[in-house]
Design brief:
The structure is a single chain. Helix content is 12%, strand content 31%. It contains one helix and twelve strands; from the N terminus they run αββββββββββββ. The chain has a four-stranded antiparallel beta sheet with strand order 1-2-3-4, with no helix packed on it. Strands 5-6-7-8 form a four-stranded antiparallel beta sheet, with no helix packed on it. A hairpin with a 7-residue loop joins strand 5 and strand 6. The longest helix has 19 residues. It is globular, with a radius of gyration of 24 Å.
């Protein structure tokens, strides 16, 4: 009987100690001179991107937002829109204010330029994705040769 009582006490102490242990979340602070906008994770990863509306750049973190760097290979100050591919979790696109834009297929490690015949539309999202084939994307552009801009069809 005494052995059973000791086992009960020991298991209660061990259970209580494990229950009382509180591992709270780790909080890291990163100071920016602007408010991060359009914070977007790549699915099933700690890689995250966001836009700076102030300086028109994209920033990337590989450690869930603990540290940040401006993305490499994209000219500074040209961002119009950051968009994630909804059907391929490794791809994202940086649409610029000009006719040269950037794409990644490795969660933002490297960016490759692509060109269009016209600048991106400002009236809706610049890219429309095909659900079955991630390589089929419609670019929505506009023509601003006069005083008014028109979407290209």
């Amino acid at each position: 009987m005494r052995l059973q009582w000791r086992n009960l006490c020991l298991s209660s102490v061990l259970f209580g100690a494990s229950w009382a242990k509180k591992d709270g979340p780790k909080i890291d602070i990163q100071d920016f001179k602007f408010i991060p906008f359009n914070l977007r994770y790549f699915d099933d990863s700690d890689v995250v991107l966001f836009e700076s509306e102030l300086d028109r750049n994209v920033y990337r973190s590989e450690d869930a937002g603990v540290t940040w760097d401006m993305v490499d290979g994209v000219p500074k100050g040209k961002l119009l829109e950051l968009t994630m591919h909804p059907f391929d979790s490794d791809r994202a696109y940086i649409i610029t204010t000009e006719t040269t834009h950037y794409r990644t297929s490795d969660k933002g490690k490297s960016w490759h330029e692509f060109s269009t015949d016209a600048p991106a539309t400002i009236f809706r999202e610049a890219l429309t994705y095909h659900a079955g084939d991630p390589d089929r994307i419609i670019f929505n552009g506009m023509d601003c040769t006069g005083i008014f801009c028109e979407e290209m069809v």
